[in-house]
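At this stage, I put together a protein sequence along with its fold in token form, as given directly below:
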Amino acid sequence: MKITKIPAPYSPAYRDALFRISATADEIVELDIFDHAGTGIIGRKRLYGSTVYDVNVAGYAQGQFEVAPLRTVQCTFVAPPKRIVNLTVGSGSTRSTTRLNAGIRTIYSYEKLSASPETRTIGPEESDEIAVIAEGGTLKAVAVVAGTPATPVTLATKNDADGLHVFGLKMADMRAKLRAAGLREPTEGEIVTVRILDGEDEEMACQRYRVAPTGEQNVRICWWNGYGQIDYHTMRCVLNNGYDIRKERVYTADGYRTTGCSRENRLSLASDFVNRETMEWLSGIAVAPGVWMEQNYAFVPLDVLTETVTTVSETLSQLQLTVRKSAREIYQHQ
């Protein structure tokens, strides 16, 4: 038996991920599929009756991903352990391994792992992520505020970075670093540019942010995007906020009695009016396998109920979403 072809590095696990196996006509191949650590067998296939086999291992990778927002208190680089999965197949001493990502497209180094527009909105106390594939060198995140000296302020560095790394942007920490450098903070409506650089100061990714006004009705949403990473967006308006109440009742000799009671928090959210590019990006919220709301420095899972998104119109479009918190609140009962 020989392994003659493997999926390209960082291929998507939500598309076919094919290992090609060749064998002699009378050979029975007992093929093992190993977990991320390469030690545990999570699948086994018995191949016979042919000389070439294409084995799709995508499903074995899907069960190993853990894609969730970063939980950091300052600007830093993090290597999330379960957004990329090593998949190994083998028989006996013959083995091959590839890396699969938790998205629907192959990802590459020196690209921003998001379809987000060039300029996005962020609040002065909010968070964001910029994901890149590193190649074993140094990573550096720097920021420049429009209208200030062009010398960038370093937000975070990471040495010997190999593979997927995510820069966690914390606006409060960035503002503190700007003050420490003797520079003013960005004010409402101003642009701050964050660039991810390699050890040679070559740009790997760049994101511009427009500072949003602080408002009690702002809701920071994040979701699992098509690159297998996390995107963020500030929804600027809560249209409705209420509860769906569920009661379970039985009728007794003394009348109705409540045997169970719960409620679901339901929200109707709206974006600013945005162009087609931004609306295409935001439409990913409706199909994302994971969506969260940042609330009181925690990430609350959401269930998105909206099933239709219009991305093209004669004027700017507004995304309106109906969501509910994934977990019901359980109340006491008789």
Observations:
- The mean pLDDT is 91.
